[in-house]
Specification:
5-stranded mixed beta sheet; 16 helices; 16 strands; alpha+beta; 4 domains; 5-stranded antiparallel beta sheet; Beta-Lactamase
Length: 681
C-alpha cells in the first residue's frame, strides 16, 4: 500500500473517530438534550397558540384570523350588493318617472306623425331626420332630455329610440342621432313589461366606455298604455357610478377588489389588477374562470378560499344581484391571503425570534453545565486523538476526581512505554530502508553493467555474421570459375544461396532484437541515474515544439491535432518532452486506419497538480490492460508498428521521479486517454 493511500485511510479513520467521539460525548449529549427539549416545548406551545389543537374545539390564532376575515368579507359583499341594488332601483324609478310624462308623450307622438308624413311623401330617412331638428316639438323634446341629463350628472346620455325604424331619433349626444338599433345590445328592447324596464351592459362605440343601459317605453298618460314604438334609454357611465362602489369602501385593504360579472362570467367593470401576462382585461370581453365568479354567475352565494384570475391565493365572498326576474349580475368580493395574514406572519416571526433568543440562552447554560461535568473526560479524549494523529509527546492533565487522575496517570504511563517502542521501531525502519536503497543501487548497477557488457559479444556476432556474408559472395564468384561437376555446383550454390543466408538472417535478426532490448535497458538504467533540472515549463510552447517534430507523420496519416490552452507545470523540460513525445507517437501509431484520426491535448488544475490528457480515437484496448501497458517489454499489439515495449515504462519512471502520476483509460475500438499529473508552478 502506498504512503498516500495510508494517509488517506488514516484521515478517514481520524474523521470517523472524531465524529463518533463528538456525538457520543457527555458534554454534547447534555447540550443536545437540554436544547432539543426546550426547543420542542417552545415550538409546541407556539404551534398550539397559532394553529390550535386538532380534533378539539380549541382554535388557534390562524383560524380566528381566517374567521374574522370571512366575516369582514361577507359584510363587505352584502353592503356592496345592497348599494348596487339600491342605485339600480333608483335608476329604474327615474326612467319610470321620465317616461310617464304627458307632454313628452304628446310631443313625440306629434313628431312621429310629421316624420311618417314626410316619409310617405318620398323623403329619404336621413333628410327627414335633418328636417325634424328644425321642428319646435323636436327642440322641445331635446331640451327636456338635456334638462334630465343636467339634473342627473351620472347619466352619460339620454336617447329616444324609434322602435319602428330601429334608429335613435333624439339624443343628448348629436353623434348618436340616426344610430341603428343593431349597435345596441339585444337586451335593450327585450323583457320589458309594465313597471319593469330592461337593463343591459354595453360598450359604447362612440365613447369607448362601459355603460349601463336602462330602457323603457314612453307612456301615453291619457290612455295609460305603452307607446311600443318609442323607447327612452338612459346611459349610465360605469366608471362614474358602479366602479366607485366596487373599488372603494372599507374591508378591501390594499389588494382587495370587487368584481361585477354577467351570466356569461364576463366582467362588467375594469379590474383592479392586471392579468398574469401584464395586460388589462376589457369589460364585456374578458371571461373569468375562477370558481367564485362562476358560482356567482349561476346565482349562488357563499365564501371560499381559492385562487383568483391572477392565480393568487385569496379569500372570496360571492353574491348574486337580481335586477329583473330574468336578469342579474354576479359579484365577487375578494382579498389576498398574503395581506390578510400579513400581521399574523409578522407576529409569527417575532415569536420565532423570541424563541430563538430563549434557545440561545438555553444553549449557553447547557454548555456551561456540560463543560463543568465533561472537561476532564474531554481532556483525555483530546490527548487520545493527538496520539492517534502521531503526536507521542503529548500527555494528559491530571485533573478532576481521583478516579480521573488515576486514569490520566495510567494513560501517560502507557504513552511513555509506547513512545519507547516507537523510537526503537523507527530506528529499525531507517536501517532497513537504507539497506533497501543500497540493494536497489546495486541492482541498477548490475542492470547497467550487464546491459553494457552483453552488447560487446553481440557486436562481435553481428560483425562476423556480416563478414560471413561477404565471404559467401566471394565463394560464389570462385565457384563460377572452378571445374566442378554440375551436381556439386548446384549443391554448393543451394547451401551458399539459401541455407547459409537464411541462418545468417536469423542470427542478425535475433542479435538486432537483443541489441534493441539491451539499449532500452541501458536507457532505463541511465534514466534513474540522470540528474533532474527542475524548472517552470511553458507547456504550450513545449507541446507546440513536439507537434512540429511530428508534422510529417501527422500530415501523412491526415490526423487532426487539437491543443487547448495549457497551464504551466514544473519539471525537467527534456524528460517531460520525452514523456509527451512518447504519448503523441503512440497516439499516431495506434490510430484506426478506417476513420479520420483525431488527437487532442487538454489540461486542467486539480488541487496542487496540473492534469494533462492526451486523447485519441484509435483502436484502444480493453480496460483490464490499463495497468499492464506500463509494464516493461509489454506490447498489446506488436502488429501495429515497431517498438521495444519500453516507452510507457520509461514515461512512468520519469513521472515517478518528478513526483507525478500517469494512468490510462481506454475501450477497444473507441480510443484511449492518457492522463499525466505534474506539480503545478
Amino acid at each position: 500500500m502506498s504512503a498516500s493511500t495510508q494517509n488517506t485511510d488514516h484521515a478517514k479513520k481520524t474523521s470517523l473517530v472524531s465524529g463518533a467521539g463528538l456525538l457520543g460525548s457527555l458534554k454534547v449529549r447534555m447540550f443536545l438534550a437540554f436544547t432539543l427539549l426546550f426547543a420542542l416545548i417552545i415550538f409546541t406551545l407556539q404551534s398550539v397558540e397559532r394553529y390550535g389543537i386538532p380534533f378539539t374545539p380549541f382554535e388557534g390564532k390562524y383560524q380566528e384570523k381566517q374567521i374574522e376575515a370571512f366575516r369582514a368579507l361577507n359584510l363587505t359583499a352584502d353592503l356592496k350588493k345592497e348599494r348596487l341594488s339600491r342605485i339600480v332601483d333608483e335608476f329604474v324609478d327615474d326612467i319610470l318617472l321620465f317616461s310617464n310624462n304627458d307632454l313628452i308623450s304628446d310631443d313625440f307622438s306629434e313628431l312621429d306623425r310629421v316624420m311618417r308624413a314626410r316619409q310617405r311623401a318620398g323623403a329619404p330617412l336621413t333628410l327627414v331626420l335633418r328636417e325634424l331638428r328644425d321642428e319646435e316639438i323636436y327642440r322641445s323634446i331635446s331640451k327636456y332630455l338635456e334638462r334630465i341629463k343636467s339634473i342627473y350628472p351620472s347619466y352619460g346620455r339620454v336617447d329616444l329610440l324609434d322602435a319602428t325604424e330601429n334608429i335613435i331619433l333624439i339624443s343628448t349626444d348629436n353623434n348618436a342621432i340616426g344610430m341603428p338599433l343593431s349597435n345596441l345590445p339585444e337586451e335593450t328592447v327585450q323583457n320589458i313589461s309594465p313597471g319593469q324596464p330592461s337593463i343591459a351592459m354595453w360598450q359604447d362605440p362612440l365613447e369607448g366606455l362601459s355603460k349601463l343601459l336602462i330602457a323603457y317605453p314612453l307612456i301615453d298618460v291619457r290612455e295609460g298604455q305603452f307607446q311600443r314604438n318609442t323607447l327612452m334609454i338612459i346611459h349610465i357611465n360605469i366608471g362614474n357610478v358602479i366602479q366607485p362602489i366596487l373599488h372603494t369602501g372599507g374591508g378591501l385593504g390594499m389588494t382587495g377588489e370587487a368584481l361585477l360579472i354577467n351570466k356569461e362570467v364576463r366582467i362588467l367593470a375594469p379590474l383592479k389588477h392586471p392579468l398574469p401576462d401584464g395586460t388589462l382585461a376589457k369589460p364585456l370581453g374578458y371571461q373569468i374562470v375562477a370558481e367564485p365568479a362562476v358560482r356567482a354567475a349561476r346565482g349562488e352565494e357563499g365564501i371560499i378560499t381559492t385562487k383568483d384570475y391572477r392565480d393568487v391565493d385569496v379569500l372570496a365572498a360571492y353574491r348574486y344581484i337580481p335586477l329583473t326576474p330574468d336578469f342579474g349580475w354576479g359579484m365577487v368580493v375578494k382579498r389576498d391571503e398574503a395581506e390578510i395574514f400579513k400581521s399574523f406572519k409578522q407576529s409569527e416571526f417575532q415569536s420565532l425570534l423570541i424563541a430563538v433568543i430563549f434557545i440561545f440562552f438555553t444553549i449557553i447554560v447547557s454548555i456551561m453545565l456540560a463543560d463543568s461535568l465533561s472537561k476532564p473526560l474531554h481532556g483525555l479524549s483530546r490527548t487520545a486523538q493527538l496520539v492517534e494523529l502521531g503526536n507521542l509527546d503529548v500527555r494528559a492533565d491530571s485533573v478532576g476526581t481521583s478516579e480521573m487522575k488515576m486514569l490520566a496517570d495510567a494513560l501517560n504511563s502507557m504513552l511513555d512505554r509506547f513512545q519507547t517502542w516507537t523510537t526503537d521501531l523507527d530506528d529499525q525502519v531507517k536501517q532497513r530502508t537504507a539497506q533497501l536503497n543500497e540493494k536497489n543501487e546495486e541492482l541498477e548497477q548490475i542492470v547497467f553493467v550487464t546491459s553494457h557488457d552483453l552488447r560487446s559479444p553481440l557486436v562481435n556476432i553481428q560483425g562476423f555474421s556480416r563478414e560471413l556474408e561477404t565471404i559467401i559472395i566471394h565463394l560464389e564468384e570462385i565457384l563460377k570459375d572452378e571445374d566442378l561437376s554440375a551436381g556439386t555446383k548446384n549443391e554448393l550454390a543451394r547451401l551458399l544461396n539459401e541455407d547459409v543466408p537464411e541462418a545468417l538472417g536469423f542470427i542478425l535478426g535475433s542479435t538486432d532484437k537483443m541489441d534493441a532490448l539491451l539499449k532500452g535497458l541501458l536507457r532505463l538504467s541511465r534514466l534513474g541515474r540522470a540528474s533532474l533540472m527542475i524548472e517552470s515549463i511553458d507547456m504550450n510552447f513545449l507541446i507546440k515544439e513536439i507537434a512540429n517534430s511530428f508534422e510529417h507523420q501527422i500530415k501523412e496519416k491526415n490526423v487532426t491535432l487539437k491543443v487547448d490552452d495549457l497551464f504551466p507545470a514544473t519539471g525537467d523540460i527534456a524528460q517531460i518532452n520525452q514523456v509527451f513525445s512518447n504519448l503523441l507517437d503512440n497516439a499516431i501509431k495506434y490510430l484506426d486506419p478506417s476513420k479520420p484520426g483525431k488527437i487532442s491535448i487538454t489540461g486542467e488544475k486539480r488541487g496542487n497538480e496540473v492534469i494533462f490528457c492526451v486523447k485519441d480515437n484509435g483502436i484502444g484496448f480493453a480496460p483490464e490492460f490499463s495497468r499492464k501497458v506500463f509494464e516493461i517489454f509489454h506490447r498489446l499489439d506488436p502488429s501495429h508498428g515497431s517498438g521495444d515495449g519500453l516507452g510507457l515504462t520509461i514515461v512512468r519512471k520519469i513521472l515517478d521521479r518528478h513526483g507525478g502520476r500517469i494512468w490510462a483509460e481506454s475501450t477497444s475500438g473507441k480510443g484511449t486517454r492518457f492522463y499525466v499529473a505534474l506539480p503545478e508552478v
